[in-house]
Specification:
Elements: E1 15-19, H1 20-24, H2 27-46, H3 59-74, E2 78-85, E3 88-97, E4 107-114, H4 123-137, E5 142-148, H5 152-160, E6 164-175, E7 178-188, H6 189-202
Parallel strand pairs: 4-5
Antiparallel strand pairs: 1-2, 2-3, 3-4, 5-7, 6-7
């Protein structure tokens, strides 16, 4: 089903999830998107969130990231979801197909971030669920992600959505003298399809 647009009836109340097209189709949202993403990521990293940066990323870096994700989404090589409360961005997430030709059937959920003011509202779960649905619809076979092992809340969320751990690198993530395990999760849509097929055969 097409995502609800913010300006459509019913789109101005509660949290609305837009895909890449929904963001870029609204000139005002599109113009502000990179800055809004930067605001969220810089604030979270500044508070110590494990998003892959030691220091808050700069505006130019985030703008480049946003452009890369939007380009990939337009080409069918990725998916973006943006959560809005009214016209304020409160969260985002995206996945990208693997670049290596032999890995192209698969994708990696690279970022999922929710503004500190919007925590504990189910926004992260809604974003993750939408991205999983997008991956399944795009024919992705395996959706992967990695996370810092102490990010217990995020890992619990991913497990509840069907991801399972398939490996970890002990003491791999480094910030100064501190070290954490890097945990790898996967969601295998092929296994889900086989299980559904098996149930149909039994019936």
């Amino acid at each position: 089903m097409r995502p609800l647009m913010i300006n459509e009836p019913g789109g101005g109340h509660g949290t609305v999830l837009l895909d890449a097209h929904g963001v870029t189709a609204d000139p005002e949202l599109a113009a502000e998107f990179a800055e809004s993403v930067h605001r969220i990521l810089a604030d979270l990293v500044g508070r110590g969130a494990p998003l892959g940066w030691v220091d808050p990323p700069g505006r130019d870096e985030v703008a480049g990231l946003v452009e890369r994700v939007l380009t990939a989404a337009a080409a069918g090589d990725g998916a973006l979801r943006a959560a809005y409360a009214g016209r304020t961005l409160i969260g985002l997430g995206y996945w990208l197909r693997y670049a290596r030709p032999t890995n192209r059937p698969h994708a990696d959920l690279e970022k999922l971030a929710v503004a500190g003011t919007a925590h504990r509202r189910g926004t992260g779960r809604a974003l993750a669920a939408a991205l999983i649905a997008d991956a399944r619809a795009a024919g992705i076979e395996v959706l992967t992600l990695d996370a810092r092992a102490d990010n217990a809340r995020a890992l619990r969320l991913y497990r509840s959505l069907g991801f399972r751990e398939y490996g970890r690198l002990p003491g791999f993530v480094a910030i100064g003298e501190r070290r954490w395990d890097k945990v790898f999760y996967m969601l295998d849509f092929r296994a889900q399809t086989s299980e559904r097929g098996g149930r149909r055969e039994v019936q």
